[in-house]
Amino acid sequence: MLKKERHDFIMRQINLHNRVLTSDLVQLLNVSEDTIRRDLQELVDQGRLFKVHGGALSKSYHSSFDDSTVYARDSKIIIAKKATKLIKDGMVVLTGGGTTILEFVKQLPESLQATFFTISPLVAVELAKYNNVEVILIGGLFSKNSQITYGGHVIMQLSEIKADLCLMGTSAIDAIEGLTDTDWEINQLKKAMLAASKKSAVLCISEKLDIALRLKVCPIEHINYLVTELDKGDQLLKSYSLKELQIL
Amino acid sequence: MLKKERHDFIMRQINLHNRVLTSDLVQLLNVSEDTIRRDLQELVDQGRLFKVHGGALSKSYHSSFDDSTVYARDSKIIIAKKATKLIKDGMVVLTGGGTTILEFVKQLPESLQATFFTISPLVAVELAKYNNVEVILIGGLFSKNSQITYGGHVIMQLSEIKADLCLMGTSAIDAIEGLTDTDWEINQLKKAMLAASKKSAVLCISEKLDIALRLKVCPIEHINYLVTELDKGDQLLKSYSLKELQIL
DNA sequence: TATATTATTGCACAAAACCGCAAAAACACG
DNA sequence: CGTGTTTTTGCGGTTTTGTGCAATAATATA
Hints:
Two copies of one chain form a homodimer. Chain A is α/β, with parallel strands linked by helices. The longest helix of chain A has 15 residues, at 3-17. Chain A has a seven-stranded parallel sheet with strand order 6-5-4-9-12-14-15, with helices on both faces. In chain A, strand 10 (173-174) and strand 11 (178-181) form a beta hairpin. Chain A has two domains: 3-63, Arc Repressor Mutant, subunit A (Orthogonal Bundle); 68-247, Translation initiation factor eif-2b, domain 2 (Rossmann fold, 3-Layer(aba) Sandwich), CATH 3.40.50. Chain A has helices at residues 3-17, 22-29, 33-45, 59-63, 73-84, 99-106, 121-127, 152-158, 184-195, 238-241, and strands at residues 19-21, 49-52, 55-58, 92-95, 114-118, 133-137, 140-142, 149-150, 163-169, 173-174, 178-181, 197-203, 215-218, 225-227, 246-247. The structure holds a DNA duplex.
C-alpha cells in the first residue's frame, strides 16, 4: 500500500470517528507502529489532525463543535452511561432524538454490534461512527424545532418495525399521569415508537420528574426502564420505583 | 509499443483501479522504470493523475471522500452560489449529499420558499434553518462512508416523488462516458434520483471533469445543468457545451 | 509507586527517484 | 537515400525516501 493511500485511509477514519488509535491502524493497515506514527506526524505537519498519546484526533471536532454548551451536560453523561448498560450485542434498538440520546450514543462501546432505527439525523450520523452498527434512518417530514423526522410517513414506517428496545427522552414524566407532552405530532410519534418495540426506556434529567403536560403519551406502566442522573435510592424516585418500572 | 499507447494503458489502469504501481507497469509494459516514471511525469503535467512514491493515484480517488479540511472550499462556494440561481420560489427540489451540496444550502437566500427532499441528514439539518422551507428527509439504511441514506427503501420512496429539479454532486463526469461512479449502491441511488425529477443539475469541481469510472449512472444528455467553479467559456468545458447541457 | 503501554531517537537496509549520458529510433529534408 | 536533428529509451551511479528494528525515554493506569 502506498503512503498516500494510508494517509487517506487514516483521514477517513478520523473523519468517521473523530479519533483513531495507533494500535488499530497498525492492525488495519498491516504496517509497523513506527510507520503509523510517522504517518500521523506527517498529517500533523500538514495540519490535518491532532496527535495525542495513543492515537490522533480530528481537528474539527475540537475547534468547531462545542459540546460544553449543552444544557446540564454532566447529568446527561451520567444518564447516557447508565443507559448503555441496557444495550447488548445483537439488539435492535429504536431511538428518538435530543441531546440526551445523542450523548448516549457517544458513550456506547466501540465494539458494539447492533441495529439502530432512529428518527434523528444527528443520532444517525453519530451512530455511523461505529463500525459494527447498522443504522436505519426513518425518513419523513423534518421538524425544525426538534431536529427529528415526524408525520404520518414516519408513523407508518414505525408500524412495520419491532425493536427490542426503544430509547427516548421526554419533556415530562409523572408517577400518576405517566409520560406526557405538549405537541400533538410528537405525542403521536412517541406512541408509535413505543408500539414499535418490545421494551422501552425513558432517559431524562431529574428536573423533568413529577411534571404532567396536556397530552398523554402512555401510562407509567408501559415504561420498562427509567434512567436519570440520580442515585437509584433517591427520594425523588421513590414514587416511581413502586411500579414494575426498573430504575437505573 | 508507442508512448501514447502506454499512456492510454496507464490511464485505463488508473480509471479501473484508482491506483497503479510503478513496478507493476514495468512488468506489464516491459519497459524500464525510467520510462514509466517519465510517462507518469508527463501525465502529471497533463493533470491526468497524481504521482506518489511508488506509483500514481487517480485524481478522483483523492476527492471522493471529502475530508474535513474543507478541500477546495473556495471552489465549492463559487459553485454553490451559481447553483442557487436555479432555485425559484415554490419549487420542489431533490438533493443528494456531500460537501458541495451542503455549501449550496448555506448559500440559499433567507427568504426562499420551497420544498426539499433529501437523502442527506446533514443537508436536512442545514435546510431546517430556513423558515419557509419544508424539508422531507428520505429514510433508509444509513451509509457510514457517504453519510447519506441508501438502499432499496430509499429507491422505492424516490420512485414516488417527482421533483422539479435534482441537485447532486458527482465523483466523475466525462463528455463521452457521462456520469460515472465506483459504488454500486450509490450508482443505483443516483439513477433513482434522476428518474425522480424533471430536470437535473450536477455540481462538481473542475478536477472531476474528464474522468470516467467503472459504473455508468447516465449519459451526459440526461443532465440539464453543469455547475463548476470555472468560467462558462473555459477550455475544459468546451467538450461539454456542445450537448444540450447548460453550463453555469 | 509500579507496571504496562506508547513515543522518541538513531540506525540500517531496501526500494524508488533523480541525474547525466549515450545508444537507438524516429523524423525532416535536401 | 543519406545525413543531421530531435525524440525516446535504457543504463550506471548517486541521492532521497520509506520502512522496520532496538534501545531508551515519556506517559498512562491501576
